[in-house]
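About this split. The held-out portion is used to measure sequence recovery: a designer receives only the structure tokens and must propose an amino acid at every position. Recovery is the fraction of positions where the proposal matches the reference. Here is one held-out target exactly as it appears in the evaluation file.
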């Protein structure tokens, strides 16, 4: 005689094996695009190197990418100084000739058959590293970096960036470092690490068609909506100067 338990156990094992096998087979999920990486809204780059505007997105199927420049379609393939990375929307701009023409507002679009995702609008600004007189201060003392942007009208939006190329980041403000209403940057006490980077004051005007010419340290800067100059801090510690 064949016992019932002998038949049931193999059947249960087969059922369990099929269930586990089903769990190991990923179900293909259709997904509209989502932007997962992009350059900052105020994107300042060094024109002497490759200018990179980042745009990464995920989706299923994998999205295709396109760009707008100043609100109009930007044909990347027709520009010999610009390339788009494979399976990505990131732009590499090799502006050996006339880099100023790439100062503009950019927006990345990632799309597939289920929808589209838009990056925020990225304003590309060239950083001109002018020669300026260094600010010399002893470690531990307070310091004020003056901005003195053009008054307008309209009143500009002022912010500070720290530059240690190839990257440029907003100055982190805290209880020790803060920006005043006038745009000046205040250090309650200077640390040695404050001298590692350069500091740039930026003033952006609300109207893109507003052109202004500003004279700073003997050089002229002309841009549609930006005013920028650099500052270098030298920290003095025990008669040793470090930049």
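Reference sequence for scoring:
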């Amino acid at each position: 005689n064949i016992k019932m338990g002998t038949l049931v156990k193999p059947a249960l094992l087969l059922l369990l094996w099929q269930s586990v096998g089903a769990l190991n087979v990923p179900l293909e999920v259709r997904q509209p695009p989502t932007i997962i990486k992009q350059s900052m809204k105020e994107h300042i780059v060094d024109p002497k190197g490759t200018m990179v505007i980042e745009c990464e997105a995920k989706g299923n199927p994998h999205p295709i990418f396109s760009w707008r420049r100043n609100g109009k379609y930007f044909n990347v393939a027709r520009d010999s100084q610009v390339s788009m990375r494979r399976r990505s929307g990131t732009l590499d701009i090799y502006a050996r000739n006339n880099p100023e023409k790439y100062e503009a507002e950019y927006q990345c679009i990632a799309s597939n058959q289920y929808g589209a995702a838009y990056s925020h609008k990225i304003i590309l600004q060239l950083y001109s590293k002018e020669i300026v007189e260094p600010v010399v201060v002893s470690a531990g003392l307070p310091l004020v970096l003056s901005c003195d942007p053009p008054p307008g009208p309209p009143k500009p939006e002022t912010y500070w960036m720290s530059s240690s190329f190839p990257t440029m980041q907003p100055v982190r403000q805290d209880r020790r470092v803060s920006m005043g209403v006038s745009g000046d940057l205040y250090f309650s006490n200077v640390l040695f690490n404050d001298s590692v980077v350069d500091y740039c004051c930026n003033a952006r005007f609300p109207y893109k068609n507003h052109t202004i010419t500003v004279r700073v340290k003997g050089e002229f800067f002309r841009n549609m909506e930006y005013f920028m100059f650099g500052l270098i801090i030298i920290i003095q510690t025990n008669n040793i100067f470090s930049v």
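Annotator remark: The radius of gyration is 27 Å.
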